[in-house]
């Protein structure tokens, strides 16, 4: 029996929405779908282990093909603990504008890892590179150069 599942969105916790949007919107190309204040009873307090009463915002991002596929939960006060090593999560994005994304991330001063050759399970060849956002969240971008 196949169980139906629908992947709704990924969510990163960040500390400054406008700064984060310089990367997620302006460099990667996500569109802001909506932005709102988090309610006092937000489930995010529990699942992200955020102190109740912390001022938070919530921004949903999307693309033309995938509305609501990414979210940013903004902690408007306080700070985030450093991300533990090894990293426990990443989002992986296929981008058509690989070099522009790398250049844009570097212009923002974000950490970029060494580019690597990508070979998919079905034999396609491409490029991949990791980028760490302003709050330590990992984004891996890739592009496909040739089909098998």
Textual characterization of the structure:
By secondary structure, the protein is an alpha+beta fold. The protein contains 3 helices and 9 strands. The chain has helices at residues 17-24, 43-47, 98-107; strands at 10-14, 31-37, 56-62, 70-75, 91-94, 111-112, 116-119, 125-132, 138-146. A hairpin with a 5-residue loop joins strand 7 and strand 8. The model has no long low-confidence stretch (mean pLDDT 94).
Q: What is the strand content?
A: 35-45%
Number of strands: 9
Order of helices and strands: EHEHEEEHEEEE
Average pLDDT, all residues: 94
Determine the CATH superfamily.
Answer: 2,3-Dihydroxybiphenyl 1,2-Dioxygenase, domain 1
Backbone CA Rg: 17 Å
In the CATH hierarchy, the third-tier topology is known as: 2,3-Dihydroxybiphenyl 1,2-Dioxygenase, domain 1
Instruction: Provide the low-confidence segments as ranges.
Output: none
CATH architecture: Roll
Number of helices: 3
Which structural class do you get from the secondary structure elements?
A: alpha+beta
- What's the number of domains? 1
Biggest sheet architecture: 5 strands, mixed
State the CATH class: Alpha Beta
List the helices and strands and how they pair.
Blueprint: E1 10-14, H1 17-24, E2 31-37, H2 43-47, E3 56-62, E4 70-75, E5 91-94, H3 98-107, E6 111-112, E7 116-119, E8 125-132, E9 138-146
Parallel strand pairs: 1-4, 5-9
Antiparallel strand pairs: 2-3, 3-4, 6-8, 7-8, 8-9
